[in-house]
Amino acid sequence: MNGLTMSPWLRWYPVWLRNVRVWRKLLGPALLGNIGEPLLYLLALGYGLGSFLGDLEGLPYVVFLASGMVCASAMNTASFEGMYSAYTRMAVQDTWIGMLTAPLSIRDVLIAEVIWCGTKSFISVVAILIIAGLLGLVADVRALLVLPIALLLGVCFGSMALVVTAVARNYDFFLYYFTLLITPMLLLSGVFFPISGMPEAVQVGAKLLPLYHAIAMMRPLMIGGVPQDVLLHLSVLIAYTLIAFPLATRLISKRILT
Amino acid sequence: MDTYTDIVSLDGLSKSYAEQCVVNNISLSVKQGEYFGLLGPNGAGKTTTLRMLLGMTPPDSGVLNVLGHAIPEQAQQMRCNIGVVPQMDNLDPDFSVIENLRTYASYFGLKPHSAAMQQRIEELLDFANLRAKAEATIESLSGGMKRRLTLARALVNDPQLLILDEPTTGLDPQARQLIWQRLRELKRAGRTLILTTHYMEEAQRLCDRLAIMDHGRIIAEGTPANLIEQHIEPHVIEVYGAGLNKWLDNSTVSSQERVERLGETAFVYSHDEAPLVSELCQIDDLQFLHRRANLEDVFLKLTGRELRE
Ligand SMILES: Nc1ncnc2c1ncn2[C@@H]1O[C@H](COP(=O)(O)OP(=O)(O)O)[C@@H](O)[C@H]1O
Ligand SMILES: [Mg+2]
User: What is the pTM of this model?
Assistant: First the structure.
């Protein structure tokens, strides 16, 4: 007779590995998206727009932008994975229901999903770091420290995305989340320009959201500096995760274990 | 060693959705090695009952025990030792046939590339007649092949108990026969099985014991032979033809029997068929068919003949 052969701490692993294996099958297009898009932004905006802008906060614009792109890409990758892909596995392919007839709980499955979101953010940041490194936009080896932050950022945005997935009735629903939260965050958290010139209210708003805090840690690391208030920034990302993940678990349990 | 007498027992189980009572105070037990069938029309509450058994739907009330585990509290441990064929296939479309088996094994903490698992997967491919399709995509499989793969997948963990929700619905007769044959082979291996179906032939051929369910209640229970004996006359004569109305109006023989009319056919249920048969032989404008009563007759008597969608 079989006992529970897996440690409760590791039950997420086979589900995560399943996602890795599927991702590997479509490696070509996946990597093209990871590398191609940020490369286009850096070339077109960084060098193109940058040539009109001159320096920003003492940095060439393309360097400023590269560090912002790292965060934006980590956020987008995890959000897409936690919404479109997770929704497909939840509601279209019944993949999760299949897993739940094995000795896995919905929590095991969702832990795997958010770790996978973090993993994808990590991969996309590795890709951008390589490009930025080749273009000479990275100061020194300290930039590698952005990788664990990218993982946490992915877990955070993955958890938030799962909350949206839990209540979504179709793919179109995700546009609300993108339009109302992700895009404003992208534009107002300092990815493309410093927010110091923005109205006070906007600055306060940005600081209440997670992306700002990720940038506040990652940008200094990319340009050879030392980030300030690391504990505060990490706490914000962790707080969002600790609120979003249990909420997503509850909502999804309610939805599929009726 | 676990000590329990029934592999599955449910007592006073109920479940409502909104206002509708979908499973209404049912009690059942299934013994080691038994093949048990849950029979019922669409919407009877079969799938909901199985979902509660698996710990995937919390019951409103009732006590549930599967393989010695209290459900839903200990459902996760319990699921180590069962195999499930859900009503809707949920094979992983991103993987090939063999990858589906390997991936599913990994969810049980089994090492998909160990020598023992490799061999088990080979055996399962043979069992499911899918060896030639090992590398095929799920998309390219026929309905019967998908069902067989789902059955093979349910066996990767060598389960004690198999739970199948309408395993052959929508399959052609050949595909259905092959699944039946496989399920009978599993029986020889001593496994316990619970299946739901609305095919009487499936129930009659596979199940040692049946419960007929309708509107969330169990309305009859027993071996197939028992159910026929208890609930229906042993002989059925199906009568049709131009003279049907005239015969029903005038025949003194038929007026003593239970007659059910379905469109152009009258079903006459009888304990003593001889007088009927000899009378019918003399009427030119009637055709008839005499047969033994079967489960279908019991089912239709108990659940009625109106269409369920
Ligand atoms: N999640 C649900 N929410 C609301 N109603 C449900 C749900 N699941 C099943 N039902 C209803 O419960 C009844 C029994 O369904 P089910 O158990 O699937 O029956 P069966 O498997 O016997 O066809 C049906 O009327 C169905 O519409
Ligand atoms: Mg059903």
Answer: 0.93
Q: Could you tell me which residues come within 8 angstroms of residue A32 by beta carbon, excluding any fewer than 6 positions away?
A: none
Q: Which atom of ligand 1 is nearest to the CA of B45?
A: 17
- Per-residue pLDDT tens for A20-48? 999 999 898 888 888 888 889 889 999 99
Phi and psi at residue B20, in whole multiples of 5°? Answer: -85, 125
Q: Is A196 exposed, middle or buried (0-12, 13-18, 19+ CB in 10 A)?
A: exposed
**Residues B233-292, CATH architecture:** 2-Layer Sandwich (3.30)
- Answer yes or no: do B81 and A1 touch at CB < 8 A: yes
CA A219/CA B43 separation, integer angstroms: 59
Q: How far is CA B24 from CA B61, B62, B303, in A?
A: 10, 10, 16
- For ligand 1, what atom is nearest to the CA of residue B40? 22
Strand arrangement of the beta sheet that strand B287-292 belongs to: B258-262, B265-270, B235-240, B287-292
Q: Which residues of A touch B77 (CB under 8 A)?
A: 3-4, 103
- Give the domain ranges of chain B: 8-81+159-223, 233-292
**Yes or no: is domain B8-81+159-223 CATH 3.40.50.720?**
no
